[in-house]
Write a structure and sequence with these properties.
By secondary structure, the protein is an alpha/beta fold. It is built from ten helices and eight strands. The longest helix is centred in the N-terminal third of the chain and has 27 residues. The chain starts with 10 loop residues before the first helix and ends with a helix. Its main location: membrane.
Amino acid sequence: MRRLGHHRQHPKQLGGGFKAMVGRLSIAVVVLLICTISLLVSLPHTGNTPSGSRSQINLEELWRSAESGGWRPSSAPRSDWPRTTIPPPAPSESNGYLRVRCNGGLNQQRSAICNSVLAARIMNATLVLPELDANSFWHDDSGFYGIYDVEHFIRTLRFDVRIVERIPEIRKNGKTKKIKAFQIRPPRDAPISWYTTVALEKMKEHGAIYLTPFSHRLAEEIDYPEYQRLRCRVNYHALTFKPHIMKLSQSIVDKLRSQGHFMSIHLRFEMDMLAFAG
């Protein structure tokens, strides 16, 4: 008689998931090796090539900072940007408060912070200090305060957008009341028109909105150059790490430099790498 209900699992079946994972990992390694070999093969072979037909590279100059050649940094505002003459909106002139939750990896969250500043500028809103996702992978609850210099962030952007650390309480009819932000899930790569219509309408209705998640929620391609320069200003000037992080990172770099020139490479070697990176 065949016993129903209980089937003994063979060791071969139990190890199926592990073997499948190893198989996928092996395929990824093979693909990476093939790409590396193809790249090396495609490089011009200079062993027997006449010196006149190949580009001369000065290795010492390669490691030096290049001259600007008169180019201005992308983060520098131009004359038509109302920055020094027109300050950011006062509380009475602001359309409301903008809260965002930056999700994804560290680089995605940094990009989301840049977009949050731009979104606040577009909507003439007051930006609440962005929230960082701490529970997805590394379970680190440091938050914005524990990673970035908050005072420097607010001071650097004081002519571009008004930033507060939290939504203030309001007094109405002799009572203290908290403003509850209306939660919205923005579409991916949302155009500026979405922020000036859908998001702004809800902000004016509720006084504050909470955009979550906020990774890749503002289009990268924007025609107005000053908006792109504002993104650069946030990324390269406003966002600075806290002193103890800067000190530790500088000591690591100094040790690497003591051994000579070095390069750092982010392999992005995850199981779902191709799904997101192409």
